[in-house]
Amino acid sequence: MTARRLPGRLRPAARRVLGAGALLLAVLLLAGCGDGAQSSFDTNSEPSRLIERLFWWMVLGAAVVFGGAVALLAISWFRRSRSGIPLFGEREPVATTAVVTFGIVIPILTLAGLFTAANVLVMRKTNAPAPSSTSMTIEVVGRQWFWEFRYPGTDAVTANELHIPTQTRINLVVQTADVIHSFWVPQLNRKIDAIPGKSNRILLYADAPGTYRGQCSEFCGLQHAHMSLRVYAEPKAQFDGWLRNEASPAPELASAEAARGRDVFMSEACASCHTIRGTEARGEVGPDLTHVGGRQTLAALTIPNTAADMAKWITNPQAVKPGNKMPGLRLTPDETKAIVAYLQRLE
Length: 347
Fold this sequence. Notes:
Blueprint: H1 2-31, H2 46-80, H3 92-126, E1 136-143, E2 146-150, E3 157-159, E4 161-165, E5 170-176, E6 181-184, E7 192-194, E8 200-204, E9 210-216, E10 228-234, H4 236-247, H5 256-267, H6 270-273, E11 297-298, E12 303-304, H7 307-315, H8 317-320, H9 333-345
Helix pairs in contact: 2-3, 5-9, 7-9
């Protein structure tokens, strides 16, 4: 009778196991969705590779501990389903040894090994480098809700699109102008918090040219999810050319419409909130727009930097990014078109 009843007893457990397996598979598949533009598994620097290896070691350690617990439960279930026989029959010392080994010794050794690897092998090599060991310093300021990047020793200031030279150790100094933010480009290194009144540092390094997406990883308000950034890693010569251009004042205007747009920009509240070097605009509320025409995106990667999207952004910024500090100015269509022509010219 026991042999005939056993399959019936197995069915509910089997269904639970299959359900858990299906759920796990779905989670793994969904975790792989997307274009991989912000993945910790597409590593492009030594710090990010160390973090990835640590993750897989943690998965292996968790599998060992979990596998031991599941094995004990399985043995117990099968043994106790037959005439109430104890886990290891009458051999109580064997049972005690198994429980102590899989329930205490192996978890402690696994966690101790992972803790040592994380703190000795990974944290030390992903921590902020000594300034003397880096080739350049870049300052980052987190704001609600965009990133400001400054290059000490130059006048270059940009927003949301960070340019760096490849194979260069960069001392990234992270601050905040308001609440707590967290700077994270997973393909290059771990995250670093931006805390009011404090400067935190981290190493930024890219092996090869490429575009690497980043994100604020600390909830900072309504538009936290739309506080993204891109890192453009470029060959040294290309980066130097970009930096020279970015450090220069706004370029000369080439059309009458752009000149009219400049006049409208200066006469409205735009000049009170934004800076355009080489003009009277000296605002510090919003991003520096000196070379905004050369950027690929607007509003911290929320929309592409096209004339049509810029016009929508200027006309009704709250519809694009609710809660941001940019007001709608009730400009006429001609005034909006002129401002767009002016800003698009600022490359």
